[in-house]
TrEMBL record:
<keyword id="KW-0663">Pyridoxal phosphate</keyword>
<keyword id="KW-0032">Aminotransferase</keyword>
<dbReference type="GO" id="GO:0042802">
    <property type="term" value="F:identical protein binding"/>
</dbReference>
<dbReference type="InterPro" id="IPR005814">
    <property type="entry name" value="Aminotrans_3"/>
</dbReference>
<keyword id="KW-0808">Transferase</keyword>
<dbReference type="InterPro" id="IPR015424">
    <property type="entry name" value="PyrdxlP-dep_Trfase"/>
</dbReference>
<protein>
    <submittedName>
        <fullName>4-aminobutyrate aminotransferase</fullName>
    </submittedName>
</protein>
<dbReference type="InterPro" id="IPR015422">
    <property type="entry name" value="PyrdxlP-dep_Trfase_small"/>
</dbReference>
<dbReference type="InterPro" id="IPR050103">
    <property type="entry name" value="Class-III_PLP-dep_AT"/>
</dbReference>
<dbReference type="GO" id="GO:0030170">
    <property type="term" value="F:pyridoxal phosphate binding"/>
</dbReference>
<dbReference type="Pfam" id="PF00202">
    <property type="entry name" value="Aminotran_3"/>
</dbReference>
<dbReference type="InterPro" id="IPR049704">
    <property type="entry name" value="Aminotrans_3_PPA_site"/>
</dbReference>
<dbReference type="InterPro" id="IPR015421">
    <property type="entry name" value="PyrdxlP-dep_Trfase_major"/>
</dbReference>
<dbReference type="GO" id="GO:0008483">
    <property type="term" value="F:transaminase activity"/>
</dbReference>
<comment type="similarity">
    <text>Belongs to the class-III pyridoxal-phosphate-dependent aminotransferase family.</text>
</comment>
Length: 414
């Protein structure tokens, strides 16, 4: 008799950018949980993992420090110049963000964290508290003393006519002076706010953050859990689109595991290499399977032209989404960089229904509970070709065509 667990698990099979559920094929424009840079399956990673499972699936991080250094050697080709150290003892983004905060606190001997409204930095007690939305905080109680949240600017839009003016942002120092006790260790920012609705920050805002942090001796952390590992067309956003941010620390996780193998870590400048091993670690941090996955993912990104693919196909994706925005009044505010796009729908109920209708058309897209929950996100695996992107756009077209009949639609139905 087949075990029920086996039956349930075997309902799902991946095939590159596709997920089959009970034999029905979906193209996944959300890359799983925004973590499948290389899709659901990859032969190179799978064969390395299988070989390692036969050797041993676990090693204490006491044995894997040298392997983490090999990964650092590969990664520093892609990091901003000042960043040349690694701390790899995490398998989640939340853990890695906490590691970065610890480094900043120990280095500055201060406590507080500045972060942005609408930001998402994780679901542990501390990272939920610094995230910029209250719904995950209800019922739970934690506070990093001295922490402060600052407003997020309006997103840069793909259609320049929709974009806000690039000047006159609020003065961060004013907020700091009015709202903090000056006990701030670090400022953490996602170069593009992922869960917040795909908010593309303007270059001038990155510069303002960098200037402010330098002036106050505050450690600037780029949370690249979503934007890292090629998502925006460069290895890290802070070495491409967001290079003027010049962070002191980069946090990575999610896509670093290529096909969803959990991994996470922190890249930092020499001065911030201050932690003792016992100060930030976890049982599975830097386990062999994580290390194999990240090592092979970096090699595949480099050897198989993954970044070039994103750069070469981005305009196709963006123009396709902008055409849909022209066609359907229910779509507005197309925005993004690389393969990290999003747009708004009229309201929360509409967005939820669109996700459901898209599924009927064999397309997986995801929404966001942050803000007014009306944004939808299109973030395909980085291996998507123009043919895959066309399939996603065609299915979106069919979805929004059907959505014109929805009671939540704002378009006039003849
Ligand atoms: C930008 C960002 N930081 C941190 C995290 C937390 O990562 P994890 O869920 O692996 O703990 C997430 C997860 O969505 C994220 O998007």
């Amino acid at each position: 008799m087949t075990d029920n667990f086996e039956r349930l698990m075997s309902r799902y099979t991946g095939d590159g950018v596709y997920l089959n559920i009970d034999g029905v094929r979906y193209i996944d424009a959300a890359s799983g949980t925004f973590n499948l840079q290389l899709g659901y399956t990859n032969d190179r990673i799978a064969s390395k993992l299988k070989a390692q499972i036969d050797r041993c699936a676990h090693l204490s991080s006491a044995h894997t420090g040298a392997m983490s250094q090999c990964i650092l050697e590969k990664l520093i080709k892609h990091t901003p110049e000042n960043i040349d150290r690694i701390w790899m003892r995490d398998v989640t983004g939340s853990g890695a963000v906490e590691c970065a905060i610890r480094m900043a606190q120990k280095y500055t001997k201060r406590s507080g964290v500045m972060s942005l409204f609408l930001a998402h930095h994780g679901q542990s007690l501390a990272t939920a508290q610094i995230s910029g939305n209250a719904f995950r905080l209800k019922n739970f109680h934690v506070n990093i003393e001295g922490s402060l949240k600052i407003p997020v600017p309006a997103s840069v839009m793909s259609d320049p006519e929709d974009s806000p003016p690039q000047e006159n942002y609020y003065d961060i120092e004013d907020i700091y002076q009015c709202g903090s006790n000056e006990n701030i260790a670090c400022l953490i920012v996602e170069p593009i706010l992922g869960n917040g609705g795909n908010i593309v920050l303007p270059d001038v805002f990155y510069r303002n953050l960098r200037d402010f942090c330098s002036k106050k001796g505050i450690v600037l952390i780029a949370d690249e859990v979503q934007t890292g590992f090629g998502r925006t067309g460069t290895f890290f956003a802070s070495s491409g689109y967001a290079k003027t941010l010049k962070p002191d620390i980069i946090v990575f996780a999610k896509g670093a595991g290529g096909i969803g193998i959990p991994t996470g870590g922190v890249l930092m400048s020499k001065e911030l290499d201050v932690l003792e091993p016992f100060e930030h670690s976890s049982t599975s941090g830097a386990n062999p399977l994580s290390l194999i996955a990240i090592n092979e993912t970096i090699k595949i990104i480099e050897e198989e032209g993954i970044l070039d693919n994103v750069v070469n196909c981005e305009a196709f994706l963006r123009d396709g989404l902008l055409s849909l925005q022209k066609k359907y009044p229910d779509i507005s505010g197309v925005r993004g960089v690389g393969y990290m796009y999003g747009f708004d729908t009229p309201n929360m109920e509409y967005a939820a229904e669109a996700i459901h209708i898209a599924e009927k058309h064999g397309l997986i897209i995801r929404g966001a509970r942050y803000g007014k929950s009306r944004a939808l996100k299109v973030r395909p695996p980085l291996i998507c070709t123009k043919v895959h992107l066309q399939e996603i756009l065609t299915k979106l077209d069919a979805t929004f065509n059907e959505m014109q009949q929805s009671p939540f639609s704002q378009s006039e139905v003849a």
